[in-house]
Amino acid sequence: MADSTQSTSTQRRYVTVDVFTTRMFGGNPLAVVLDAEGLTTPQMQAIATEFNYSETTFVLPPREPGHTAHVRIFTARTEVPFAGHPNVGTAVVLARELETQGNSIGDRFVFEEGAGAVPIRLLRDAGKVVGAELTAPEPLSIRSSVSVAEAAACLSLAPTDIAIATHPPQVISVGLPFLVVELTSRDALRRAKPNLSAHEQVLPPIGTDAVFAYVRGAAAGELHARMFAPLDATVEDPATGSATAATIALLASLQPERDADVAWRVEQGVDMGRASLLLGRTEKHAGVVTAVHVAGYVVPVMRGVLSAG
Q1: DSSP label at 4?
Q2: Which residues constitute the domain of residue 154?
Q3: Residue 139 burial (CB count, 10 A)
Q4: Is residue 247 included in any domain, yes or no?
Q5: What does the pLDDT read at residue 277?
Q6: What is the mean pLDDT of residues 251-256?
Q7: Per DSSP, which regions of the chain are E strands?
Q8: How far apart are CA 281 and CA 249, in angstroms?
Q9: Residues 30, 146: one domain?
């Protein structure tokens, strides 16, 4: 979308929701700005900074026939090409708005984003849209790795807290890159906290600004996770769908089965008091992960009007 050079004052609706939770004030907060057409990029960034959530989305008319909307995603500091909880939350907000207006929407959306087209499947309970499942827009890419000492420093942990039997601390992406680090215990995950100077030294050269740390749970496909991104004004994120998607895609790719559909359950935000639940699915055929999905529930919190642009 080309930026407008001039715009008249317009009241624009917004809705806030909590994503990857079934209760208000859990999960990850998101602001969704409807009627965003005509806002410039600096205006969108200013609004996202004002909300000061980990992300704010702006809903615009689609560029391609058959798509639902063009969605732009901003953190408090910058625009990003893809993110998890913004897709899930925006889908539920938009679906409810459209149905309130009397539109028949079906159960499938496609959002246009910087990383590409993002397919969305709406989840219903008694006919009401209560959640959504996204499909990652890019195949898994495995990028730079870092040393155990560097990963430990980023998380304020000892090198012995880092697990490397399955994979090294590594940057991976299915649309947005993260340094993904497996830890040896739930206690290590609980003790983890971001070291800003280590983040500044380690992360920019490897093409990311965030660390996703996880430990395996007791059940197959169960993970416990935390995500830190102080370089992007997010000390800790309560739920990170894009990092979850990349991580389960990596783990599925490393499993010995050549063909397998695996369900994943990822708990995040527990140690910061905003418990979140992310439900993942990976599809693997002929040894290659062909699709990765992340689903969750959404709870509405607030709605209002912005006097911007």
Answers
A1: P
A2: 141-293
A3: 15
A4: yes
A5: 98
A6: 97
A7: 11-19, 28-33, 56-60, 69-74, 79-80, 108-113, 116-125, 128-135, 141-145, 162-163, 170-173, 178-183, 211-216, 222-229, 234-237, 260-268, 276-285, 288-307
A8: 9
A9: no
Residue 1 placed within a domain: no
Q: 142-195 pLDDT, tens per residue? A: 999 999 999 999 999 999 999 999 999 999 999 999 999 999 999 999 999 999
114 and 154 share a domain? no
Question: Could you write out the DSSP letters of every residue in 169-229?
Answer: SEEEESSS-EEEEEES-HHHHHH----HHHHHHHTGGGT-S-EEEEEE-SSTTEEEEEEEE
- Find all residues with CB under 8 Å of 97, minimum gap 6, and list them: 15, 34
State the total domains in the chain: 2
Asked if residue 192 and residue 129 are part of one domain, the reply reads: no
69 with 94: CB under 8 angstroms? yes
| Residues designated as active site | 55
Q: Which two tokens stand for residue 196?
A: 């800003």
pTM of the model: 0.94
Are 176 and 288 in a shared domain? yes
Q: Is 101 exposed, middle or buried (0-12, 13-18, 19+ CB in 10 A)?
A: exposed
Asked if the model's pLDDT at residue 242 lies above 50, the reply is yes
Query: What one-character DSSP code corresponds to residue 83?
Result: -
Angle between helices 84-100 and 241-254 (to 10 degrees): 120
Tokens representing residue 61 in the block: 């008319």
DSSP lists the bridge partners of residue 112 as 70, 117
